[in-house]
Specification:
The structure holds 2 protein chains of 2 kinds.
Chain A: H1 2-21, H2 24-44, H3 58-76, H4 78-87, H5 90-95, H6 101-129, H7 136-164, H8 167-184, H9 196-202, H10 206-218, H11 225-250
Chain B: E1 2-13, E2 20-32, E3 37-41, H1 48-55, E4 63-68, E5 71-72, H2 77-83, E6 84-87, H3 99-109, H4 114-127, H5 143-155, E7 161-165, H6 173-190, E8 193-198, H7 201-207, E9 210-215, E10 218-223, H8 225-232, E11 235-241, H9 247-255, E12 261-264, E13 267-272, H10 275-288, E14 293-299, H11 303-311, H12 315-321, H13 325-331, E15 333-334
Parallel strand pairs in B: 3-8, 3-9, 6-7, 7-8
Antiparallel strand pairs in B: 1-2, 1-4, 1-15, 4-5, 9-10, 11-13, 11-14, 12-13
Helix pairs in contact in B: 1-13, 3-4, 5-6, 8-11
Classes of the chains: A mainly alpha, B alpha/beta.
């Protein structure tokens, strides 16, 4: 186990060193949710009371959704940098070392999750600064859920990258997967505003429960069934994505 | 160090009706002894890289067995990886990372401490004339420097066996010659057994103790460069005589060591196995018989002549006709693989 963690940390340090060489990317990555917060948040102020989501504060409603969006979108692009490394022979060079092949994935996920944590803290801090209110415990739980979602998406993205090894294939696949998730998860507006058929479809979208869980956590309703279901889904998706990612990285011909 | 028996690699390319089975490697047997420098020669698409990827545990053989550095590639891959160094033809370092950082991180993945990896890395940088480039990014290095850095990466953990996949592809002649010197020194300075793939005839000729020729997934020859050339046709010896009346005597003398003698005016040609040994005796014989020579020329056969004899086509023609080597290795799905 010590050897495994050491291998993960070698990969992590290498990745984080490259990220620190281009810190602008961390800020560029958070620009989309920040813009939503600053430019879309004010539009919700007169509407949020009608949402029946346990809060009348537009930012307490919006920030948890943006966190989940950040976790999904930011992390789902992690695989693109992996393709770049593969093209330059880095992945193959790592795969002929005795290091556990799953450690090559886990080290990279540590980087993705740390980067996501920094972005999440910036987003939450900005949210508080412009008027969000939320229980500290609930916010911590919301960030943890975000990290689980982000870790899952990063693992899936890396697995996809190792399977396709082509940005031109990966980009449309990511778009096809992400758009329905974004539209059916109630990230920007609650699904309860929609028609019955739309709500029925979104009932089959696990990310909807995750967004609801993060919202309930922010409002301090930590014992709600939504928090239980959403956290459960986040853990399950994380476990499945890790299993997929690890099995792709372990494959002899990956 | 390497013992392979009946190695097979089958890929599937295309989908649906276009699905095609590609037999990239068809039952390869290999034996490489400790301390040998072996050149694995063949045109593009012959199966060199695919064979090498099976030996370094990047690809599971479809059939057959291989032991590398005493370990089975299928059942003991981690022990194999611990014992070998590998320099891929596409490189091994990230263009935006410092060379020294890449080498140290690579060493640490082999279990080396940071201190040991730094010390060994700096020693290798000096040996491979990369002094002053520790804090330089790969993207700011010349082609030759990048390839030397790749070899340093492969040697950081002091492996007993080093695999070099087309080490000089894409380099200019000067950088190639420089890299050859370093590769030649691997056995002497690092005590390593070297297995290198190449499609350059002169490279295999200059670097390898023994050459294994692969074509269309099958081994077609394995011997020293000299023996391969001698076994095919021998050296061509051409005698230019000072007068016409000595042609018959010269032809008879040359015929005593050659089965294939031709006369063209005052020129007498013949194929002689190992001319280096036979020609001094021939010259003494001619002198004793009073035959005067204007000149003598000995032309050694090339590995291309060997390839032509063994396969019926020139290595260069085969290169042009072949599919790229990495089609099978990188983009196709090995048999039974999930894509």
């Amino acid at each position: 186990m010590t050897t495994y963690l050491r291998e993960c940390s070698v990969v992590f340090r290498r990745q984080i060193r490259m990220n620190l060489r281009n810190p602008a990317w961390v800020l560029i990555g958070i620009m989309q949710p920040v813009l939503y917060l600053v430019l879309f948040g004010p539009l919700l102020k007169p509407l949020v009371a009608q949402f029946d989501t346990g809060t009348t504060n537009a930012y307490t409603f919006l920030v948890p959704g943006l966190l989940v969006q950040l976790g999904m979108f930011g992390a789902f692009f992690a695989g693109f940098s992996l393709i770049g490394e593969w093209r330059e022979g880095v992945i193959e060079a790592e795969r002929v070392t005795p290091a556990a092949r799953s450690a090559l994935l886990v080290g990279r996920l540590w980087r993705d999750v740390l980067q996501l944590l920094v972005q999440a803290l910036i987003l939450v801090g900005l949210g508080y600064a412009i008027g969000m209110r939320g229980s500290v415990t609930g916010v911590v739980l919301g960030v943890v859920i975000t990290l689980l979602v982000g870790g899952a998406c990063a693992a899936a993205s890396n697995a996809l990258a190792m399977s396709t090894k082509d940005e031109n294939v990966m980009a449309p696949v990511v778009n096809v997967v992400m758009m329905p998730i974004l539209l059916l998860s109630g990230i920007l507006l609650p699904m309860t505003l929609g028609a019955g058929w739309l709500q029925t479809i979104s009932d089959f979208m696990p990310f909807r429960y995750i967004v609801d869980a993060a919202r309930d956590a922010f409002t301090g309703d930590l014992g709600s069934s939504e928090v239980m279901w959403g956290t459960g889904w986040a853990v399950l998706i994380f476990a499945l994505a890790m299993w997929w990612g690890a099995s792709v990285f372990r494959r002899e011909n990956a | 160090m390497i013992e392979a028996r009946g190695l097979v690699q089958t890929f599937h390319t295309g989908q649906g009706k276009n699905k095609k089975e590609v037999h990239a490697v068809k039952g390869v047997d290999l034996d490489v002894a400790e301390g040998e420098v072996v050149g694995f020669l063949g045109p593009n698409g012959a199966g060199k890289t695919t064979t090498l990827r099976m030996l370094v545990t990047l690809l599971r053989p479809t059939a057959g067995t291989a032991r590398v550095a005493g370990y089975d590639v299928a059942t003991e891959p981690v022990q194999v990886r611990r014992s070998i160094g590998y320099c891929s033809q596409v490189g091994s370092t990230f263009s935006g990372a410092f060379a020294g950082d890449e080498v140290v991180d690579h060493g640490m993945l082999y279990g080396m401490s940071r201190k040991d990896a730094v010390a060994k890395g700096q020693e290798l940088f000096e040996k491979f004339q990369l002094e002053g480039l520790w804090r330089r990014m790969n993207k700011n290095m010349s082609g030759g420097q990048k390839r030397r850095l790749d070899i340093v990466m492969g040697l950081i953990h002091s492996p007993s066996l080093v695999f070099l996949d087309e080490p000089t592809t894409g380099l200019d002649p000067q950088a190639r010659a420089n890299l050859w010197e370093h590769i030649s020194g691997l056995r002497a300075n690092e005590g390593a057994t070297v297995f290198l793939t190449t499609h350059y005839l002169d490279e295999a000729d200059a670097l390898a103790d023994r050459i294994i020729i692969i074509d269309r997934g099958e081994i077609v020859a394995s011997d020293t460069s000299d023996n391969l050339k001698a076994s095919v046709s021998g050296d061509q010896v051409s005698l230019e005589l000072s007068s016409d009346d000595q042609v018959a005597t010269a032809r008879d003398k040359l015929a005593s060591i050659s089965d294939d003698v031709r006369v063209d005016g005052r020129l007498v040609h013949g194929r002689v196995p190992r001319a280096g040994k036979a020609v001094p005796g021939l010259l003494r014989d001619l002198e004793a018989s009073g035959v005067g020579l204007e000149g003598i020329e000995v032309i050694r056969p090339t590995l291309d002549d060997v390839f032509l004899t063994l396969t019926g086509r020139s290595l260069r023609d085969a290169d042009e006709a072949a599919e790229p080597e990495n089609v099978d290795a990188e983009t196709a799905a090995p048999e039974g693989a999930t894509r």
